[in-house]
Amino acid sequence: MRFRGVFVGLAVFVGACCCSLEAALKVQLVATNLARPVFVCSPPGDSNRLFIVEQRNAQNVGRIRIFDRATGSLLATPFLTTLPVRNDSEEGLLGLAFDPGYETNGFFYLNLNPLVGARRTEIQRYRVQGDPITSNVADPNSREMILSYDQPFSNHNGGWLGFGPDGYLYIASGDGGSGDDPQNNAQTRTNLLGKILRIDVRVPEGNTNKYLIPDGNPFKDSPPRRGEIWAFGLRNPWRCSFDRETGHLWIGDVGQSAREEIDVNPAGVGGLNFGWRPREGFIQNPNRLGENPVTPRTDPIFDYDNNSLGVSVTGGYVYRGTAVPELRGKYIFADYGSARFWTTTLNDSQTNGTTTQITTDINPGQAAVRSISSFGEDAEGELYICELHATNGKIFRILAEGPTAAIIRSAELSGSEIVMSFDALATQSYVVEGTGLLGQGTSWDQVSSISAATTNRTVTVTNAVTGDARYFRIRSE
Cβ(66)–Cβ(74) under 8 Å? Predict the structure, then answer.
C-alpha cells in the first residue's frame, strides 16, 4: 500500500510518502491510438495536461495532441496540425518546447522537416489561441520561422529542442545522415550539423533578428565558425534533457555500427567535442582508424554494444519527481529496438555514475513496451514513455510496482472541513483515514473511501475536521 499524508493544525501541509517503497518499477498505459508519438511534455506549471507530439499521420502532417489528466482522455481536436512534413522514417515533426514564459506569452517552438522546398530542418515558433493556461488550441496563422538549416540526407535529423535553466533555447542536430558522416559535418564548426545549438529567442522589440547569439557561446564572434554552436561531435542525438535540479544536459547519441552512448554536458560548459566521427562511444570508430577529433574529446559516461544489447539509444531523464522515490536522482534511458532499460545512479559530481540494466524490473520480457521512441516529463517531474506505431502509438507512465501513492494537488481548510484534491489512477481504490494524534503507534480510522474507476481522474474529497480527526492521510489499496 502507499500513503500520502495531509496534516491539519494551524496550517495545512502536504506530507511526503511515509512508508518504504519497493525497488521494482512498472509502466501504466495512459493513451493509445496515436500516430507515431515521438515526444510528450507539459507547459511549465501545467499539472492538468500532457502535450503529445505525433511525428506524422497518414496525411503526412504532424500533430500535437492533448491528454487531459483530470478526465483521463485524449482530446479529439489537436492542439496544432502542421503543414505537410517529409515522410522518411526519421523525418517529420520531431520536437516541441514550451517557452519558459508560456503562461503569459503563449509561445511554443517546433523542430520539423517541412515537405515543401529543399530538405531541411526548421525551428518554428507558434502562439496559443486565447488564454495559454486554459486554451487547448494553437493559432496556426502565428507560425514564424526562427532558424533553418539544410539536411543533405533524410536521416540523422536529431530533432530535440528545449529551454535550459539559463533561458536559452537548445537544439540537437544530427550529422546530416547517410552513414559514417561522409561530409564530416560533426567535426566541422562552420555548419550546424552534428551539434548542440544554443540561441536566445528573447529578441528585444525593434530588433529584426529572429534570435541572438548568447554571450558564452564558444564560437561567438569567431567566423567562419558558427556562433550558434554550444557543443559538437555528435552523430544523431536522439532525445536530450536537462536535469531540473543541476541544469546538466544529458544526451543520448545514436551510434553507427558499434556503440550507443550517453553523454553529459555540464551546465554552463560550452565547446565540448563528443568525438564523432573519429570516435564512437569509448572506442575509435572502426571505419575511421586514422582520424582524430579536431579538439580534445569528451568521452561518454556510458556506452553499450549495439549488436548484442540494442540498435538505437533513446535518451531519457534524471528523475526528480515524487511518485517513485527509489528512482529519484537516477538517470533512466532505453534502447528503441531492444526495449531494454538502464538507470545511472549519479555520483557526487551529478555528471557520472554507475549504470545498471533494469529491463527485468520495468519491462520484463521486453514485452510491456516496445519501439521506445522517447521519454517525456510532466510539470511535476513524473516520467512517461512513447511507443512508436503508425496508428496505435502509446504513452505509458513510469510508476513504482504495487499500489501507487496518491499525488495530492491541493489541501485546504474550509470552515470545519478539509477539502483535498488528488490524482487517482485507473483501477485503483483509495481510503481517507484520520487520527487525532500523531506519534509512535498512531491509530488511523477510515473516514471515507474512493472506488476504482475505468480512467485516471482527479478526485476531490471533503471531510469534517474534529477532535478525533485532525490529521489525514490518503491510502491507496
Answer: yes
Whether the predicted pLDDT of 442 surpasses 80 = no
Is residue 314 within 8 Å of residue 335, measured between CB atoms? Answer: yes
The torsion region of residue 467 among left (phi > 0), alpha (psi -120 to 50) and beta comes to: alpha
Cβ neighbors of 450 (< 8 A, separation 6 or more) are 424, 429, 430, 431, 432, 459, 461
Please name the residues in contact with 125: beta carbons below 8 A apart, sequence gap of 6 or more: 107, 108, 109, 110, 142, 143, 144, 146, 201
Number of residues in the chain:
477
- CA 244 vs CA 52, 265, 428: distances in Å: 20, 14, 30
Asked if residues 33 and 392 have their Cβ atoms less than 8 Å apart, the reply is: yes
What's the rounded Cα separation, in Å, for the pair 268 and 115?
36
Q: How far from chain centre, in Å, is Cα 42?
A: 9
Whether a cis peptide bond, with omega within 30° of 0, leads into 226 is: no
**In angstroms, how far is CA 167 from the centroid of its own chain?**
17
Q: In the chain, pLDDT over 70 holds for what percent of residues?
A: 93
Q: Is the bond leading into 204 cis (omega within 30 degrees of zero)? A: no
H-run or E-run covering 407: strand 407-414
Residues 222-234: tens digit of each pLDDT: 999 999 999 999 9
Nearest 5°: the CA angle 401, 403, 407 is 105
The CA distance from 24 to 396, in Å, is 16
Q: Which helix (H) or strand (E) holds 103?
A: helix 102-105
User: Can you tell me the distance from the alpha carbon of 226 to that of 191, in angstroms, rounded to the nearest whole number?
Assistant: 6
Give the number of other Cβ atoms within 10 Å of residue 283's Cβ: 11
**Single-letter amino acid, residue 178:** S
Instruction: Look up the pTM and report it.
Output: 0.85
| Cα 198 to Cα 164: distance, rounded to the nearest angstrom | 9
Question: Biggest alpha carbon distance in the chain?
Answer: 79
Nearest to 381 by CA among 464, 323, 448: 323
User: Any idea which of 51-55, 362-366, 468-472 has the lowest mean pLDDT?
Assistant: 468-472
Provide the residue type at 243 as one letter. D
C-alpha cell of 49? 495536461
User: What are the CA-CA distances from residue 48 to residues 74, 421, 431, 458 (Å)?
Assistant: 12, 13, 23, 9
Please tell me whether residue 401 adopts helix, strand or coil conformation: coil
pLDDT digits (tens, 9 = 90+) for 369-392: 999 999 999 999 999 999 999 999
CA–CA gap between residue 300 and residue 282 (Å, rounded): 7
| Other beta carbons less than 10 A from residue 441's beta carbon | 5
